[in-house]
Amino acid sequence: MMKGTEEHEWREDCAPRRVMELFTTKWTSMILHTLHVRHGGAARTGVLQRSLPGISKKMLVQTLREMERSGLVTRHVESAVPPAVEYRLTPLGLRFVGLVELVYDWGRMNADALDLLGGRATSRRNESVRASVYS
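RE: above sequence
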């Protein structure tokens, strides 16, 4: 624990740790960003999937359902054949969009620092891109 900080600020359920949970699943922040920036806060499932290269339909639906349980989005089903499902940002979701946008803006402004990071097992980034930074 850092000197001068209260012990409760470091508990597992403290606010900083809870906010970082938003970023533990990469798709949550990307869906929030995409819904807000590209689709004005609402989009159908298929449109969202086409807007997020690399996400499988299963992962998209799983993440959207978790976001719905968390109160970040609402799910609206239109009676049609087949049913049209649209996801919309809630007021709570909009509050988190601001945080996501801050992080994304930081990433854009500091892309060079991100390029210097060592490889991560979970990264899909091409090793040759990182290698070119060091040459």
